[in-house]
Specification:
This protein is mainly α. It is 78% helix and 0% strand. The protein is elongated, with a radius of gyration of 30 Å.
């Protein structure tokens, strides 16, 4: 027997509304349901311009639904107006080449690649991708002479202006305000955690502060992830905001796993250490303030105090050794404050990201260099951006050629369908095709029945039009791909019956065109990189690990004195090695973004992939700090024996990372299996400190070995943590593309 309470619970579960944070999808759908029919009616009933009608309809839909820019009113309006201008140029270009037999496919190949590749710039540019593709596709697949270009461009421009006004006036949602509020809360929690590192802090208080900071950072990252599909600012500010959240998480990670982890130890308790903590806390709180429009953080103060702290720490170590304190205790004390110093470097970087995210403008020359660097990075292999851009461009070019050659009715549906079902791997494309066919079949049945019932009654069609637009727009991001396709097909049947009454038969044309685009998409998906992002992500990560091993090798050589002091910090070789690893990391970032859009795999989930990627940022930070240390004059030439012993452990460490890179490249691991010996490393550090007790000239050399040893320990611990995730990534990459 089913009790009423149980039945009530089941019903409540059954009618649970779709996930829609902040009712963003509801706002977007309501906005489209008002604007699209009104703009369509104005163009149809008042202007009487058939060439404009389709571009008004699809222009509004592509800008308000497919692109849907976020952010504050000014930035949002500028994004819509820019997209309108670019779309108008694409409409003119598409119309100009539309009457040729072969030129449309060639130009589609070039335009498709350029638009899809432009996603590397993120932000509004990435969000506009689908809308810009649609503007060109409609123009190039509906042949017309050049004399209709003004009418077509006018229709698109009208759609753009109406969409711009609607976006800023009808229920705008300011995600940036919410996200920055969450980031501010996270920054303040991290500031409290850093303040808890002062001498005399109670362990229980520090544990509580860690938990609060971790929760605040996680909430900020989840909030951003929930809204990331809708850009809130230009790409530069979006990227800086993401990096800010990453740096917050990194500070918490470093404090949770300090250099002296699992070792009860004394701490130097230097006044300069308190000053360094105070400068970091002030910078973190000012970074929170700058997101709300307050003054910029004083990052220079961190640098000044850090130099003072470095000198004070050296004096403290020398005094303790002269006083006869055991070298083991001195080494543990140095570990405590070196954790503090690493946090200070991350805080400095975080503050710069906060200033950029708040709207500081970059130097024009630097911006141009960044653009050229990004283009070069993603044109190198392995690059999922390059592969994805080529896949989309080839698929769309074939679709245009087939649709025009076969003279299919509503040829742009073939190309539009290709855009909708083509995915980054063959398996995902096949699944999407099945869902698209099922969804369109449902839409044809329901839309066809409505067309039969409505008959030749335009009034009924006009009444149903806003509702169909609302359902199609709402379903696009909330209900699922299959049902969104059904809703979109119903909307198309109504629209084309308003333009030229054709009854339910227009649905059959839609199915016919869908089958053509399904075949094209599946063919392209199988022939062009069918494995998708999971294999390319593994290879990209392998490239990152291999390149940062080279960067770390140079940094350790500088600190340990195996490279002359004149070739230390900011040498051409180090700068070149860092650029290589940063480009490799950027390509891995792009592969990770693509991976997130693919169907999940139990052997290689999103959290595992994110950990593999974030480890690269940690290693780059280590390489940067090694170069900073060498640039300050810390080189181990005066403690050559300890440097040689430490270097053996460095080679063991880098060999382990290179073996990880070989595994990720799906290649046999080269070299002998070896592990870092922490006792041997500690022996080298202690030996140098003992020499310092009797020879004051050994001071900087001894400190260089100590600092290098700390980073070897830190990176060795990270390498151990990477073993299991790398195994999962390799297993996923080795799977056949159809699994």
């Amino acid at each position: 027997m089913i009790y009423p309470q149980a039945l009530s619970r089941r019903l409540r579960i059954a009618v649970k509304p779709p996930r829609d944070p902040g009712y963003g999808a509801l706002r977007r759908a309501a906005r489209a349901a008002i604007v699209v029919p009104l703009a369509f009616a104005f163009a149809d009933l008042l202007l009487g311009a058939p060439q404009s009608l389709v571009f008004v309809m699809f222009g509004c839909f592509s800008l308000l639904v497919m692109s849907d820019f976020g952010g504050l009113r000014r930035a949002r309006a500028l994004a819509y107006l820019t997209a309108t201008l670019v779309g108008a140029a694409l409409v003119a270009l598409g119309t100009l080449v539309s009457t040729s037999a072969w030129l449309p496919a060639v130009v589609m190949l070039l335009v498709g690649f350029a638009i899809t590749f432009s996603r590397i710039f993120g932000g509004y540019v990435a969000a506009a991708n689908l809308g810009m593709l649609l503007s060109f596709v409609i123009a190039v697949t509906i042949p017309a002479s050049p004399d209709v270009i003004p009418a077509r461009v006018g229709g698109w421009a009208m759609a753009g202006l109406v969409s711009t006004l609607a976006s800023v006036a009808l229920w705008p949602r300011f995600e940036r305000v919410t996200m920055y509020r969450q980031a501010t809360k996270a920054l303040l929690a991290v500031a409290d955690l850093v303040e808890g590192m002062r001498p005399g802090a109670v362990d229980g208080d520090l544990t509580r502060l860690k938990a609060i900071a971790r929760q605040a950072v996680e909430e900020a990252r989840q909030g951003f992830a929930a809204m990331a599909k809708r850009p809130i600012a230009p790409a530069r500010r979006d990227r800086a905001f993401v990096q800010l959240l990453i740096e917050c998480e990194r500070i918490v990670d470093i404090i949770e796993r300090p250099f002296n982890e699992d070792r009860a130890t004394m701490r130097p308790a230097l006044p300069e250490g308190d000053q360094l903590v105070a400068s970091m806390v002030a910078a973190l709180r000012s970074s929170a303030g700058v997101l709300k429009g307050d003054a910029k953080p004083d990052l220079h103060a961190i640098e000044v105090v850090r130099l003072q702290h470095r000198a004070a720490l050296d004096r403290w170590a020398a005094e303790q050794l002269r006083a006869g304190r055991p070298v083991e205790q001195v080494l543990d004390g140095l570990d405590v404050d070196d954790t503090l110093r690493v946090v200070s470097y991350v805080t400095f970087t975080l503050g710069r990201h906060a200033v950029t995210a708040a709207g500081a403008k970059p130097d024009a020359g630097d911006a141009a260099i960044d653009v050229l660097r990004a283009i070069r990075t993603y044109l190198e292999s392995p690059s999922t951006v390059l592969q994805g851009s080529l896949r989309v461009a080839v698929g769309l070019a074939i679709a245009v050629f087939v649709a025009r050659t076969l003279d299919l009715s509503h040829a742009f549906w073939v190309v539009l369908g290709t855009i909708q079902v083509l995915r980054s791997n063959a398996l995902g494309t096949g699944r999407t095709i099945v869902l698209a066919v099922a969804g369109n079949a449902i839409g044809v049945v329901l839309g066809g029945l409505f067309a039969v019932v409505a008959g030749n009654q335009p009034t009924v069609m006009w009444i149903a039009f806003p509702l169909s637009v609302f359902v199609a727009a709402y379903a696009a991001t909330t209900i699922g791909f299959m049902l969104s396709q059904a809703a979109f097909t119903i909307n198309l049947i109504i629209v084309f019956n308003l333009i030229s009454p054709a009854g339910w038969q227009v649905g059959l044309v839609r199915i016919e065109d869908l089958m053509v685009c399904a075949f094209i998409s599946l063919l392209v998906g199988v022939l062009l990189w069918p494995h998708g992002a999971r294999r390319e992500l593994a290879r990209a990560l392998g490239s990152v690990y291999r390149s940062f091993a080279v960067y770390l090798d140079q940094g350790f050589d500088h600190v340990l004195g195996f490279v002359p002091a004149a070739a230390g910090f900011e040498t051409a070789g180090a700068d070149s090695a860092r650029k290589v690893v940063v480009r490799a990391r950027d390509r891995a970032d792009a592969a990770f973004d693509t991976f997130l859009t693919e169907r999940g795999d139990r052997a290689f989930d999103e959290e595992t992939a994110a950990f593999l990627l974030s480890s690269a940022n940690h290693a780059i930070l280590a390489g940067d700090l090694l170069e900073v240390i060498a640039g300050m004059g810390y080189q181990a030439g005066s403690c050559a024996d300890g440097a040689r012993e430490a270097r053996e452990q460095v080679h063991a460490l880098l060999g382990a990372y290179l073996r990880l890179a070989d595994r990720l490249d799906l290649a046999p691991a080269a070299g002998l299996e070896s592990r870092v010996s922490l006792p041997a490393l500690r022996k080298a550090e202690l030996g140098c400190l003992r020499r310092w007790q009797t020879d004051p000239e050994v001071g900087r050399g001894a400190m260089a070995v100590v600092m290098a040893g700390e980073w070897v320990q830190n990176l060795a611990r990270l390498e151990e943590d990477l073993e299991e995730p790398v195994t999962g990534a390799v297993e996923a990459a080795r799977k056949p593309w159809w699994r």
